[in-house]
Write a structure and sequence with these properties.
With 237 residues, the protein is an alpha/beta fold. Helix content is 35%, strand content 18%. It contains ten helices and eight strands. Helix 5 crosses helix 7.
Length: 237
């Protein structure tokens, strides 16, 4: 199951009106989103031209509006408080800079404008090997550091998984889990979480957690769910 299928299923189920996407790049996800009326697209550099923006609007019959913000996500939230207050977010997809610090910032900033029934989905929350989880400031930095490594598969998820751990540990008013598909789709939403596994008692500094610790405690740390769980989740929202 892909992130696009997951997002469109949520949009259809919840009649999503306001959708935010952070980390648009070529628009693979954005231009395949169906149903939401207002889409807020955020990226420091859109990797597509104005014609593609125009074509996406003309060919769509749902009368949606794409709102493009070619800025960093931090600047987007700083510059558009009034806009976001008037357009409470129902669904957000965070796929920007794959670092713990930035993915956490994006999640916490999104939560300020998320509807009580809104959902945040984060990409890259379940790196399958240590190189995919390599801590770097960007994909370019990761490639530069790892390109000559014999086990490098050119897959970089970064340490976004730590954001799920942070939310679970520090925000009892929120529920977070990861669906085991498409590099790990993390879900964050406003529902009081259940009791945490004992492993969380040993965690003090999330930033310093290493991949070996994550790999040994993957299921408990991010509450990893099978793909089949998504249908159960859909029924519950």
């Amino acid at each position: 199951m892909t992130r696009i299928e997951v997002l469109n299923a949520i949009i259809k189920k919840n009649n999503v009106q306001n959708y935010l996407e952070i980390g648009v790049n070529r628009g693979k996800c954005l231009f395949n989103i169906k149903g939401s009326k207002n889409r807020f697209a955020v990226d420091p550099f859109f990797n597509f031209n104005s014609w593609k923006k125009f074509k996406a609007c003309v060919l769509n019959s749902d009368n949606f509006k794409n709102n493009y913000f070619e800025v960093t996500s931090d600047d987007f939230f700083h510059q558009n408080e009034v806009l976001l207050q008037k357009n409470t977010l129902n669904l957000a997809f965070i796929d920007g800079l794959h670092t713990y610090k930035q993915s956490l910032n994006d999640t916490l900033n999104t939560l300020k404008y998320l509807d009580n029934k809104g959902i945040i989905v984060l990409h890259d929350c379940n790196p399958l090997d240590e190189l995919a989880a390599y801590p770097a400031n960007s994909i370019d930095d990761a490639r530069k550091d790892l390109e000559n490594h014999k086990d490098w598969k050119n897959i970089w998820n970064g340490d976004v998984w730590k954001t799920i751990v942070y939310i679970r540990k520090n925000h009892p008013e929120l529920t977070a889990f990861v669906l085991n598909t498409d590099h790990g789709l993390g879900f964050v939403y406003k529902k009081e979480r259940t009791e945490l596994p004992e492993i969380f008692n040993s965690i003090t500094e999330i930033d310093s957690l290493e991949y070996s610790f994550f790999d040994a405690n993957r299921n408990e740390l991010i509450d990893l769910k099978p793909v089949s769980y998504f249908q159960e989740f859909l029924k519950s929202i």
